[in-house]
Structure formats: structure tokens, C-alpha cells
Amino acid sequence: MRLEAYWGVGPKTREALTETLGTERAIRAIEGGDVRALTDAGLSRGRATRILRRATGGEGMDTLATSDARAAYKELLDLAVDHAVTDRAADRIRVLTPLTSVDAMEARLDDVLAARGAWESLADDDRETVLEAYARYDDRDGSERAAVEAALALCDSGVETGPFETIADLETDALEAAAAALGALEGENGRVREGADEELDRLRSALGAVEDMDANALQVIEDLRSDGVGDVTAFRDAFEDRLLSETQVTIDQVREAMPTEATDATDFVGGTLRSLRSDLTSAVDEREATVRSDLEATLEDAREAIDRAVGAVDDIAFHLSLARFALAYDCTRPTFRTGDEAAVSVVRATNIALAARGESVQPVTYALGEHGVTGDALEAEGLEAEGDTDAATRIELEARSNPVTEEELPADERVAVLTGANSGGKTTLLETLCQVVLLATMGLPVPADCAEVTPVDALVFHRRHASFNAGVLESTLRSIVPPLSSGGRTLMLVDEFEAITEPGSAADLLHGLVRLTVERDALGVFVTHLADDLEPLPPEARVDGIFAEGLNPDLELLVDYQPRFGTVGRSTPEFIVSRLVANAEDRSERAGFETLGEAVGNDVVQRTLADARWSG
């Protein structure tokens, strides 16, 4: 296969890859999702990631039908990467894409949830042992030796459940020998490392001492003469003694190296040292070759164990990283609906992006299509239906003042028009639904107590873009309408479409989008302030509302972020004006805001302020 056949690989990229990796290795790196190999070849991490996403999951990437859907997808990956235990695991997370097979989604969920269970079962000390093992693995750049040592450390932790099962039956004796051999072969300049063999160390030490003495041969001669050595025999004996005491060579090596026809002391000392250097160099090379051969034989014998350890360590790191991500946001397994009737439903879902920023998040329950929220959610919550009508008809929502009851849940409308207060969480709800669908189709747990997802062929997520011109309107319509017309299953999540054109035209176009969504058997939520202008809606569509409930003593807007189904939510300018009146810095400013208060209802403004003061 030609490298240019892969998405994003042009002539320059191909040249960089073939020059560094060669064509075959470059293809293996792309097919295997190896980010590091491509970055080592000179590609930026972002470019390498984009190429690999398309190479390993191009069909899944095609489901991200808009730039906002792709941005939400990348944001989720970034949040997951924050929980990666190794750099390699982070790279593997970055190239995750939506999957197109429910079987593949279920299989990945099995692995991630098994890893989550194993991680939760560990004591704090054992978790620290695992993380330290992976930290050392990263410090050594994920080398084969680092992987083997990490596998041994994981074996020592005693964990044998979930992903750790893959290391439970590794041959630890073979791995320990392999770790020693790999360490011995990691000396400078490709030489066998010091400490690998005593005889090799002795020969190297002797050679080094002889080389030092040779570099200072004249000083050696001067030292011997200053000691009173006069005749040739005495000089020879004194030099011999010095060699034996300082270089660890044997007396036979010394005498064999001494020249028989030296003309003077300089010639005699220099000839002896040169001969010793040559002999010792040969001895070192010969011994090193023997040691290297033995080490390589050890690695060959342990090759299967090494390969299993390398694969296991990387796979455990990958699944463990995703498990830590799922645990951080209390994610659970979604249920996939694969029948003719599509649905997306969530019970007590939270927005991961808000949670990651440490913001207080109110869980919400929402549903589109023929969902199974009622029964499944009650079962997930562990409520007993028999003999307890109230428990059977209520979904308990923690930290909620207004829990959603079964009677209040939506019917089976596939399309919803979401209305309500400014800053009421309408956009956040769209983002939350987008996150749930994306995570589920990537085979990952979702941030909800219970969720049902029908995998879609196109996810159309459109955030509010306040650019009021014809070009923006045209580009928006070009991005959100074609997926609806493609014939596949589509989820529409469109936020304040009216922000890009005048209200009258926006209402007409939005009404058309709702009808088109219904006609194409798609699912959709459309956020708007123009609900009254969209009547009559098709029977397959409903209107939901989010309501503000007043101001708190700090004059902050109190909002119940849980939508009320089948009810139009109203904007709450009186609450905003009330806050402006209360916070006015001078009389003239206050008078101006009070004039606005008269426009929205001065009695409402005053009552709001009184309620806020009373609640404090």
C-alpha cells in the first residue's frame, strides 16, 4: 500500500516517514496507531494524531458531522488524557474514535469497566505501587526493559483481576532474567554495561589502568629512576611490580608483553604498555562478545514472555487510564438501543466539562424517542416497585430539590424544542447529551446513572454563534442540513439558531428544520427563544422548558436546570433587572434600571428583591 493512500499523508509527509522509518515500518505505525513512531519521524503530535484517527477509525470520524461535534469530541479526549498513567496510554486515547459496531462498543466497555472494578478494589498502597511502576516506565521512555520491569512490579502488586489477569501467569523467572539481560545490553555506545560480568569488568579496569599509565609513560620512568633503580634488571623488576599493583594484569601477561630488544627505558616501557593495551583490548572485545552472546541467548529464550509483558503493560495502562477517567466522573455503562425506533435518554446526567472545572453541576434527566427511562432507571436506582407505589413512580435524584417523577418524564417524542431562562443551562444540556452519545459510541462509560443510546450515523451539534450575516447562515445550513438528507440515523443538537439571522426568518427556518428532522425519523433538540413562533409543531415534537426561580441573597440567579417536559420555559428579564437595580452604584444609574423595571413589571421586580432579602 502506498503511504499517500492514507488520509493526511502528502509528498512531504511521505518523504519524512520513509526517510526516518522506511515505507513498511511507517505503514505498520499508521495501521497500529503508533503516535510516537510518527512524532519521532518529525511529524507534530497533532498531525500524527489526525492521520491515525482517520487511518484507524475513519468511518467513525465521519459521524462527527459538524465542527462543534468534532470540538466536543476532542474536548472529551483531552479530559480522558488527563487521567492517563503513561505517555503511550495518552497517545492511544488521543486516537480513539467513535466506533461503528455495537459489538465493538460493548467489547471496549467490558474492558474499561473490568479495569475500573479492578482499580476500585485496590488498596491505596497498591494503587501507589502501580502508578510508581508506570512512572518509572515513562521515565525510561517506554523501552522494552522498562516494560518488563513494569510487568514485574505489577506482578508483585498481587492484583489479578480485570486487565491485570494478563500478567498473572507471566513467567516471572524468565522476565527477571530478561530484565537483567536488557539492562546489561543498555551500556553507552552499545557496549555491555558495567556489572554484567565480573571478568569483563576486570579486563576493562585493567585496560583503563594500562591506558592511563601509557599516557604518563615518561612520568612512570622518572618515578622509577627517582626511587634509585639503576641497572636494567632492577628497572625491569620495579616496572613489573608497578604494573602488577596498579593494573590488575597477571604476571604472565606482563612478561609476555615486555620487549626483548628494547634499546632504552623509554622504548622498554612504551613497548610493554602498547603490547598490553593491544592484548587487553582484544581480551575485552572477545569477552564482551561472549557475554553479549549469552545475554542475547537469554533474551531469545525469554522472547515470548517479553512480548507478552510489553503488550500487557501497554494494554493495562490504556484500559486503566480510561477506567480512572470513568471513575473520576462517576460514569456508568450505557444501554444501546438498536431497534427500528431510535432513542437517547439519560437519568441524572452531568456535564463532564463543567465537572472538570470544579463547577457545581445539577444532574438532569432527559429523553428523546421511545426510551426506557422509567423501568430501567428505577431498576438502576435499586427501587422496589412491589407494594410501594411511590417508590415505583419516582426516580430519586440526589442533591435535587425537584426530582423528576415517572409521571413527569417525557413521552416518546423524537424531537424537542428546548426553551427557557437565559443562563438556564439549555446549552449545557445539549453539550451533556452530545458527551453521552460520543462516549457511548466510543465504547466508554457515560456520566449518568442510567443512559440509553442509539448509535447514530451523523451527530449534528451546533453551538450558538452570534454572527449575524448571510455567510454564516449559509455555512450553518450547509453543515446541518445535508446529514439529515443523507438517509442515515441522525441526532440534531442545535443551539439558538435564531442568533444568525433575523427573528422572523429564523422562526420559519427553525420550524422547517424541526419538520425535516421529524420527516427523516431523526432525533433532535433545538434550543430557542422563539417557541411561540413555531406553532403548530408536528405531533412527533414537543416543547420543554427550563425555569428560573428567583434570586438568592447574593442576587445570583436561581435556576432549576431540570427541564419540565411539555412546558414552554420563559425568559426571566425581571430577575436580571432586579439584580441590576439592587447593584446600581449611583442614583441616576438606579433610576435608569428602575425604568426598565417598570417595563417588565415593577411589582415583580420589587417582589423579587424582597424575596431575595427575606431568604437571606
Automatic annotation (TrEMBL):
Domain of life, per lineage: Archaea
Entry keyword Metal-binding: no
One of the record's GO molecular function terms: mismatched DNA binding
DNA mismatch repair proteins mutS family domain residues: 413-589
Entry-linked InterPro entries: DNA_mismatch_repair_MutS_C (IPR000432), MutS (IPR045076), P-loop_NTPase (IPR027417)
The keyword ATP-binding belongs to this UniProt entry's keyword annotation: yes
Keywords: ATP-binding, DNA-binding, Nucleotide-binding
One GO BP annotation of this record: mismatch repair
Protein name per Swiss-Prot or TrEMBL: DNA mismatch repair protein
